[in-house]
Amino acid sequence: MQKKPRISFIKFIFIIYVIIFMFLSLSYILLLMKKSASNSYEIEINGQKYGNTQFVKYNNQISIPVPSGGRYFLENVDVGSFRVLDSQNYSDRSTLIVGLDKNSVYFGNIRIPDLNPNKLKVIGNGYYTDGTNTYFCSDMSERNQNLSSPMEIFQTLIYAFSKTKKPQSYIYPYKKVETDKRLQAVANLSFFASDGDKVYYKGEVLENVDLNTLVPIDGQYTYFADKENVYYHSKLLPIKNSGNLKVVSLNPDDKFLYDEINGYVFIGDYSFDKEKAPYKIIGSNGTHLYSLIFVSDDGIYFYDSENKKQIKLKDNIFVGDIEEISPNVFTDNENIYYFQNYEIWKKYKNRGSFLASRNTEVYSLGKKESWKKLADIGNENIGSLWQKDNEYYYFDNLKNSSSKVDYRSTIYKITDKSTLESLLFYPEYINAEKIDEFILNKNFQDVKGEKLFTATIKFHNVLKIFLGVLLVLGFIFIVFFLYLNKLNKEDEKNIDKMLLEKYRNIKPLSKNYNDKE
């Protein structure tokens, strides 16, 4: 008698999970259908463009593409009076995404309520004013920081089942400048403006900055330094300008600031542990690695770009000075080492695959004595030829591929005499296609040293996240159901108790047989 309710409850839980799964699957399908049915291409081809800007008029609607977000429509816009702020000065490209009608100013598709379109003026470097309020607007789209992940998911689900507007996942970022003074654009410094007292970067104030000595440390306006201070965007970093600062990067997303004098390392405003400094960076010009390696007296580190933190791989095993003798090969006082990278892709059960991890390995080739460089290979230095005793090796500088077809080892032993002669006597005529031919014909033999450590960056599995959301939603629903069930039982008990009390207080209407009148 006790098992039936339990079996029924398990069935109930299963049904709930099935319903949630079907709902999320249907949402995903509807989103794909909406994307495939999108008329963005038709709008771009057949719509009326406003000058050289990104705005397009089509079917009495005005829209603008936002990179990574798709096409968005301007809401409550007066189409008849709409115009663009194309200043023809394309050193300030933000003018290409600023529009106006008789009532409002738009940064992309976002209406700015406190800017007067009839008084709007271009300051330069992305800054605009109507004489009362001042804003900065960038022409490079970014994630919408005001839209939380739960809200984005909620809006996406609503969008899938209705005709509401899609979530504003990406925007052209803008910032109101809190000043009542007149701004001027700073010459030769993109995104900068000054009101005479304060200096602004993308609308944010830089503290204690000397504008006369302020320069970008890299060419992409990520890090800046004046005669004393160092900044990441507008944020003051906790170091002083040593005079020997450089930006090191393997990809556009991970730009490290390196102080060559003190050995400090920053990525954005995140600082590597300064107590472990100085750090030595290895692999900054490498092509067979996904992660730079940072060596201090304390240990060997890398930066986990997914979890946004410094990770220690192991204690420092290197002896003395470290020298890079090739983009992917380096030595210490005793041994020679090289990088090797690879990706791990995993398949879903039904179809498709996802990137599970990127891995950077460091191998040892033993003692560095008797290694001798003979020549650089190719006009673009695609590799180099080396000799060890009576054996010859090719050190590869070409960028490695995640594809097994194009995969390259870092070091090859040359096993074919004619190949060796080509590399020795005609190194400048060897190109990447010829190297691939040598590898394909097995004129090169892979070299494997002793693996010392691996730096691994693990990526999130979208399917696991989806299933996680499914489980969480199901769990929340079940807890809520159990809570309601508990309340219902408590109500029933209270009602039974109340009825019992009332029943006890009722006097009998009939007499006992033995009662006397």
From TrEMBL:
Annotated transmembrane regions: 12-33, 465-484
Pfam family, one: DKNYY
The organism's place on the tree of life at top rank: Bacteria
InterPro entries, sorted: DKNYY
The entry's keywords: Membrane, Transmembrane, Transmembrane helix
UniProt name for this protein: Fusobacterium membrane protein
Annotated source species: Fusobacterium nucleatum subsp. polymorphum
Lineage of origin: Bacteria, Fusobacteriati, Fusobacteriota, Fusobacteriia, Fusobacteriales
